[in-house]
Amino acid sequence: MDSFSQPNHFLLNLPITELSLSENFKLRSKLMGFFTLQDIIGTNQKDLHELEDYSEHWYFEFVDFLRRKDLLNLLG
User: Quick check: helix, strand or coil at residue 14?
Assistant: First the structure.
């Protein structure tokens, strides 16, 4: 199935502030310059780990959200 036809694919382009994620996740995302989940997905994973406000907790919350929304397959 093409990833663009997934029912929850629209979530990727919504503002992170509108998603059911923690306030900590939203703040760290903003500090790192991410405003949508697509911004995060489009960033090289190695580069993510080097960002000043990156944390493992933040990343695990991101992965868990994608898993719950059946979007985990979008991570390369």
Answer: coil
Q: What is the pLDDT of residues 10-42, one digit of tens each?
A: 999 999 999 999 999 999 999 999 999 999 999
DSSP code, position 74: G
How far is Cα 6 from Cα 3, in angstroms, rounded to an integer? 5
List Cα–Cα distances, 18 to 2, 26, 44, 45, 51, in angstroms: 25, 9, 24, 24, 23
Of 36, 30, 39, 33, nearest to 14 by C-alpha is 36
At 41, list the tokens. 């997905």
Mean pLDDT of all residues belonging to the chain: 93
CA-based torsion, 33, 37, 42, 43: positive or negative:
positive
